Amino acid sequence: MKLVKNAAVAEDGWTTVADDENLPEGGAVIVSLARFKAERDTLVGRNAPLGLRLKSNEPPATVAEDLERFSVIALEFPIFRDGRAYSHATQLRQRFGFEGEIRAVGDVLWDQLLNMIRCGIDAFEVDDDFPLDAFDEAPKLFSNYYQPAAVGGPSIFEKRHGA
């Protein structure tokens, strides 16, 4: 697996820690929602960056009061047909004002990149053979959009009506 940010492979300074694994002494970790709820006091008391991994059936509203504690939120795309993480990314950016990294993990496909970017996802865990040129091409596929986006330019309606 590799991490892609700004259309380039990036070093991943985060360690995803399974629920049954011990936390490393230091360093940035990403934990599940279940682990965060079970070990909240210990995790927020660590002197290291904290990230959260949400399954597609775990909406960000469940941790809205703690969002400022997370530097990264990894949203799972379990299969390409499950689009709930798109809504979660949009909610994180628009409703909750989350400014940290939103990372797509799981079944990330090249033809979904544009929608993921428009929803506010800015980092992607992909297979080693994933074509990096897809990250350059995806934002160029369309110049006008009917749907408003969490990030990016205005919709056609907004352009027509000067909103």
Description:
The structure is a single chain. By secondary structure, the protein is an alpha/beta fold. It has one domain (2-161): Rossmann fold (3-Layer(aba) Sandwich). It has helices at residues 33-38, 40-45, 84-95, 113-118, 133-137, 156-161, and strands spanning 2-5, 8-10, 14-16, 28-32, 50-54, 72-77, 101-106, 123-126.
How is this structure best summarized?
With 163 residues, the protein is of the alpha/beta class.
Q: Please work out how many helical segments DSSP would assign.
A: 6
Strand order of the largest sheet: 2-1-8-7-6-5-4-3
When the domains are counted, the total is 1
- Tally of strands: 8
Spans of at least 5 consecutive residues with low confidence: none
Return the structural class: alpha/beta
CATH topology: Rossmann fold
CATH class: Alpha Beta
Q: Spell the H/E element sequence.
A: EEEEHHEEHEHEHH
Average pLDDT, rounded to a whole number, is 89
Name the shape in a single word: globular
Q: Any guess at the CATH architecture? A: 3-Layer(aba) Sandwich
User: What distance lies between the first and last C-alpha atoms, to the nearest angstrom?
Assistant: 41 Å
Helix content: 25-40%
The largest β sheet comes out as:
8 strands, mixed
Which range does the strand content fall in? 15-25%
Radius of gyration, in Å, reads 16 Å
Question: What are the salient characteristics of this protein?
Answer:
163 residues; 8-stranded mixed beta sheet; 22% strand; globular
